[in-house]
Amino acid sequence: ATGNIAKTISNIVLFFVVLAVVIALLYLLYGGIKWITSRGEKTEVEAARNHIIAAIIGLIVVFLAVFIVTIVLGAFGVGLGDLKIPVITPK
Predict the structure, then answer these.
(1) Fewer CB atoms near the end CB (10 Å): N or C, the chain?
(2) At what angle do helices 42-75 and 2-36 cross, to 10 degrees?
(3) Alpha carbon 89 to chain centroid distance?
(4) First and final CA of the chain: distance in angstroms?
(5) pLDDT tens, 37-68?
C-alpha cells in the first residue's frame, strides 16, 4: 500500500509542477502579446515587461524548487518516486 501512496504523491507533485510551468508560460505569452499590442506607449510597454519578468521569475522558482528537492532527497539517498509513508505496526 505504501508504494501506491508514494506513486500518488509523486504524480501529484508532477501535476502541480507541470501546471505551474504551463501557467507561467501562458503568462509569458500574455506579456508578449501585451508588448506587441502596446503601440509603443511607455506605461503599457512597462506593464508588459513586468508581466514577462514575473513569468520568467515564476519559471525559475518552479525549476529551482524541483532542483532543490531533488538534490536534498538525493543527499539522503532517496528519489522522489521512492518516498514511502512510514507504517507503525504493533508488536
Answers:
(1) C
(2) 160
(3) 36
(4) 20
(5) 999 899 999 999 999 999 999 999 999 988 88
∠ Cα 15 77 1 (to 5°): 55
Mean pLDDT, the chain, integer: 84
pLDDT (average), residues 1-14: 70
Give the sign of the dihedral formed by CA 39, CA 40, CA 44, CA 46.
positive
Among residues 81, 77, 15, 26, the alpha carbon closest in space to that of 51 is found at: 26
Q: Mean pLDDT over residues 85-91, rounded?
A: 69
Q: Which helix (H) or strand (E) holds 42?
A: helix 42-75
- DSSP, res 38: T
* Cell numbers for 44: 503599457
3-state secondary structure of 17: helix
